[in-house]
Amino acid sequence: MSELGIVYALLGAAVAVLLSGTGSAIGVGIAGQAASGVVTEDPSKFAKVLIIQLLPGTQGLYGLLIGFITLSKIGVLGGGLADLSVQTGLLILAACLPIGVVGLLSAIAQGKTAAAAIGIVAKKPEQFGKAMLFPAMVETYAILALLISFLAVSGIQV
């Protein structure tokens, strides 16, 4: 068994979780600042702004999902480590990169978009549905990255 192959695969799982989770934390924080200001002025808008604030958190969940799938595939969660070559470890690392990188960047962008959407709800709460569309559009790219990472990790023979 190549220890280096396992190290690369574990690095891939870590990249998926750490980068997308970092992006989500930043994005939710940005939106949370806007939400806090709105709730200070009008506590009745709490539920609406909370829903919008949570949207950038999905990228962290997507990275976590790919991390779990990767750990399961290489045997960390199953009890016995797979015998991975360096090439296979690098393939797994590369397969985890889309959700890590796109998760990081899209969650931050979604946090900014969610903050703007929260501004819409602050002034016109009846426009909540329309306001949700703007950060939801950013979500599309995180979902595409999740799909690519999932298909790539799943397609690698271990």
Your description of this structure?
It is a single chain. This protein has 158 residues and is mainly α. It has 5 helices and no strands. It has helices spanning 3-41, 46-54, 58-73, 86-123, 128-155. α2 (46-54) packs antiparallel against α4 (86-123), α3 packs antiparallel against α4 and α3 (58-73) packs parallel to α5 (128-155). It is elongated. The termini are close together. The relative contact order is 0.21. The mean pLDDT is 96.
What is the typical, i.e. mean, pLDDT? 96
Q: How does the helix and strand content classify structurally?
A: mainly alpha
Measured between the Cα atoms of the first and last residue, the distance is: 12 Å
Q: Could you describe the largest sheet, including whether it forms a barrel?
A: none
Q: What is the helical fraction, as a range of percent? A: over 70%
User: Using only CA atoms, what is the Rg?
Assistant: 18 Å
Number of strands: 0
Order of helices and strands: HHHHH
Residue share in β-strands: under 5%
What ranges have pLDDT less than 50 throughout 5 or more consecutive residues? none
Number of helices in the DSSP assignment: 5
Overall, the morphology is elongated
Topology:
Blueprint: H1 3-41, H2 46-54, H3 58-73, H4 86-123, H5 128-155
Helix pairs in contact: 1-2, 1-3, 1-4, 2-4, 3-4, 3-5, 4-5
